[in-house]
Every structure is written in C-alpha cells, then in structure tokens.
Design goal:
By secondary structure, the protein is mainly α. About 90% of the residues lie in helices and about 0% in strands.
Length: about 220
Amino acid sequence: RNLVGLIIGAAVVFLFSGLAINAVSRAAGAVVVEVREQFRLHPGIMAGTEKPEYARVVDICTRDSLRELVTPGLLAVMAPIAVGFGLGVGSLGAYLAGAIGTGTLMAVFLSNSGGAWDNAKKMVEDGHHGGKNSEAHAATIVGDTVGDPFKDTAGPAINPLIKVMNLVGLLITPAIVSLALGNGETKSHLIAALAVVVIIGALVRNRKQATAILN
C-alpha cells in the first residue's frame, strides 16, 4: 500500500503539470482567436485609426484562469483524501513523500528547460545561428511557446500544489486514524470513493472543455 501511495503521489505531480500546461494553451488559443476577430472586424487597428478592445482580451484571460483552476485545484485537494481514506495513513505519508520528491525535481526541470528555450530564442535573435527568419529562429519560436508555460505556470505552480496537499494531509490525518481505530473502514472507503469520483468528474469536464474549444 505504501508503494502504491508513493507512485500515486509522483503521478499526481505529472498530471497537475500537464493540466497547467494545457490550460495555458487553451487560454492562449482563445486570445489568438479574439485578436484575429478584432483585426477582421476593425481593419483600422493595423492602420492606427482604431483602438483595439483590450477589455475583451483581459476578460478572456481572467475568465479562463478561474475556470482552468478548478480541475488542478480539485486534484490537489481530493487526491490526498482519496489516498488517505482509501489506503490508510501510512500510504498517505508515502503519497506526500512521492509528491514532494517528484514535485521538487519536476519544478526545477520545468523552470530550467523553459528558461533555456526562452534564452535560446533571444540568442538566435541576437544574430547567432542564422538570426531572425532562419530555420533556427523558427525552431526556437516553437521552443519558446512551450517554454513559457513551463517556466511561468507549471513550474511555479508545483510549490502551492505541494503546500495544499500537505495541508490537506495534516488536516485529515486525525479523521483517518479515528476511523481506523473505531472500525470505520466502510466510512473511510466511502469517503475515498467519493473523492475519486470528484477527481474523475473534474478530469472529464476538463477534457470536454478542451474538445469544445478545439472544435
């Protein structure tokens, strides 16, 4: 059971990072669509005779940031509950250890790799490896597009993820122990099952939103 908790803790970090990166991708795509629509409806923007509707873009960023936070937030809160009540307090400790160990390494990896991609683009734009409008420049633009959510979103977000999971773990530990001592295994498993259902529901909802935006 402890090994299972350790593996789940490590997997949650990767799942959380993927959700964060996908969230940035969808929000950025919505902004691109809005900007293109404004250019189409208001050609004077490029000529300088009309002003863009900045508020619409700000509204997209604000709305999407709140909506996209739901699934990672529920994952951070419900995963420790599912592991703790489903597998026991020992597995919860192993889960938190796996999340902390994996999360620390993952955060460093995301920040360093994202920064490297960003700096590679700046290096090429300074005239190295063919400069602007070269194949190397096109490649670094792609790298920078991926690197920004790495170093600015997913990497820094792992810190609050670990804090939230540890806090939830500390808060639910007395309840787990009391149910275990009082022969409340049925209640524990019911709570764990409910937490798993909430996580699955959030992931399904997130997937449907992504599919709707792509279509």
